[in-house]
Amino acid sequence: MMNQLLKRPGFSFVAVLAAVIVAGCDNRPGETAQQQPTPATAAVDALPSALALPDAPPGAKDVLAVKKDAKEGDAVVIRGRVGGSKSPFVDGRASFQLVDRSLKACGEGTAMDECKTPWDYCCSEAKEVAAHSATVQVVGADGRPLHAGLSGFAGLKPLSDVTVTGTVAKAGQTGTLVVNATGIHAN
Hints:
This protein has helices spanning 2-7, 11-24, 63-69, 126-131, and strands spanning 61-62, 75-82, 95-99, 133-137, 161-171, 177-186. It is an alpha/beta fold and 187 residues long.
C-alpha cells in the first residue's frame, strides 16, 4: 500500500511538507513557543517626513571639498554618488556611503566595462575609495542611525547622484566624514 501512495503525483511533496511541520513542532504539551523577532517583524523607525527634498538644495559641495574643510557641528550641503561597496546601504539602518563624483565607477572609462556592480568602485584602490567617501546617516533623538533602510527612499539606488543637507557628526584627520542628514535629494 505504501508503494501505491508513493507513486501518486504530489504525494512526496505532501509527505515532505508534513515531516517538516511535525519536525518543527518540538514544544512539550502545555508549552508555547516564544516568537523571536525576525527582520520582517523587527521594529522599523519612521523616516522624517521632511527628509525627501523635492529639489536639490543650492550651494552643494562635492565630497572632497567638504572633507577638506569640515568640522564637527558644521552645517553642510554635500553631493556625490551612492556607492563605494557592493552594499552601499546599511541593512536595517538609515545610512549609506556617498562617493565624490570625481572618482569613476567601474566601466566609466576603466578596464572593467562589464562589471556587474560598478558602484563598488572595485577598479580603484580601496584607499582611494575611502579617501573619496563619506557616510550619510539619518539619526534619531539618541544620535544613532534610525532603524530604517534608505535603499529606494526618494529614488535612492547605487550610483544615484545625491545632494544631502545636514550637520557634520564626525570629521577626522584620517579622512573620516560622517554627515547627519536632514534632507536628501536624489537627482
